[in-house]
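Below is how a single chain appears once it has passed through the pipeline. First comes the sequence as given, then the structure the pipeline wrote out for it. We keep one example in the README because the format questions we get most often are answered faster by looking than by reading.
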Amino acid sequence: MPDKFTALWVSHSSISDFLKCPRAYYLKNLYKDPETGRKIQVTSGPLSLGSAVHEVIEALSEISTQDRFKQPLLEKFEEAWKKYSGKIGGFLNKDHEEQYKQQGREMIRRIVNNPGPLKNLSVKLKGDLPQYWLSEADEIILCGKIDWLEYLPATDSVHVIDFKTSKQEEDKNSLQLPIYHLLVKNTQKRQVDKASYWYVRFSDDLVEKELPNLEDAHQTILTIAKKMKTAKKLGVFKCPNGESGCFACRPLEQVVQGSAEHVGIGSYNRDIYILSDDSTDLETDSEIL
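Resulting structure:
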């Protein structure tokens, strides 16, 4: 079996980064600051909001159903928010932070009032980061965290659920559900019967999606992963916009050029930066933890 430490690890977030801009993928996933030896991250309000809300929700899956809501979720949210308060969360001032914090409270209240699948049995995958060999021959591992796996006792199967905190709905061509379907299929024994998004910002109900074909999903993801591996081998990561850059790589380029403010070290041992303006404060999507 190939060595996991030398294999290329890919996930929904890294694949999305590569498809948007190979240069952004490199700066976000591979580049390390030569002085600190750490990877870099540009923080923002939407990113911190999504992280805090996800943290509260995902922690519930580790608690038995009868005890899941004993501690008020708003209390858990207030506790989680402390990690993102101030500049390390991408907030320029107290008013700016409070706007996002209030949005988070509203999402948590929606979940409290409409717990839906969160009150049902769930399946927790083993390990901190579910993973499997997408291709041993190509030395590529697919990994990623699933927000929620609802257990369906009538069929001894699972329902894949992803929570969305953004204002926009997921693009119909998103590879997120194909990747999650592959991960769940290859890291536990139960069949996937359903897959849904829950847009907790604006909806009380889940949006069920058609399950992707596993063979097609495998081939699509493997093809992209091979391109990522080739780019890494050649050391060529070009922005589609050329030297002018794009929305995905420009903020990271500012970090490399020394024009961003270092505000701390994140939970994944990344150097966290904030830009002097609010150019990264765009709610384009939610973060995959």
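The CA atoms of residues 83 and 222 lie 36 Å apart.

See the next section for the split statistics.
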